[in-house]
Amino acid sequence: MSENKKAMVTGASQGIGKAIALRLAKEGYDIINIDYGSPEIAQEMQKEVQSLGVSCDYYKCDVSSFQDTESLVKECIEKHEGIDVLVNNAGITSDTLFSVMSEDAFDKVIAVNLKGTFNMMRHVGRKMLRKRSGCIVNISSVVGVMGNAGQANYSASKAGVLGLTKSGAREFAPRGIRVNAVAPGFIETAMTDKLKEEYKQAFIEKIPLKRIGTPEDVANAVAFLVSDDASYMTGQTLMIDGGMVM
Ligand code: NAP
Fold it and tell me: Is residue 29 part of a domain?
């Protein structure tokens, strides 16, 4: 059993989650990736993390399932003897205007982004409480703070993530467990690749720093929040958005 600290990152096969996993691997964490997408992409990411000299386990699991996440967390805790850091990053979008949004589009986004974060905080948080140590970072979004036309489901899920973060921070603080959030703005990943070019340009115009963010910009904030440099911070949200929300 490696002496390294363990970081569980959901949705770490690609995009922001992968950048977070690589950054935490550079800090010496063994990585546990919980992702529901392509196993091939997960295996590529696994090799990249392992090349940094730490271990990387991959579990295919849908974070929106209470039961699946419960048994997965049990298995991981037994294997790894605890989890030091949990990053709830897995997320999806299903954008459309209010008046045409289907019930399914609303339910799916809430199930993955909000309930998925609850599931993981619930199962991993229990173990951290028993151990009296640990650190949780939830990935929200600027639109959870300011709303966005065409993203009622997504904005509601990400606002809910901030509620989970603050409630978890208050509940877990007496046992020394910190819970914070990062709210990225417009970050270049597969999630934003599908947006139309003119929409992207219009978005960049609204960003004071006039550029799209990188997954590494978000990973830097996560690395700070889990470090001892942030040991007096809990219940906070770091906006990584080039100044969009201030
Ligand atoms: P991404 O490139 O789509 O990556 C998300 C990862 O999560 C994918 O590997 C995806 O697998 C996985 N995933 C999706 N549903 C899952 C589930 N039910 N269970 C487990 N894993 C699941 O997205 P990203 O842009 O890196 O976003 C990461 C996080 O940042 C999300 O929470 C997102 O809402 C948030 N965020 C992103 C931006 C941005 O501009 N990109 C801005 C603000 C916030 P698949 O291969 O199946 O999709």
Answer: yes
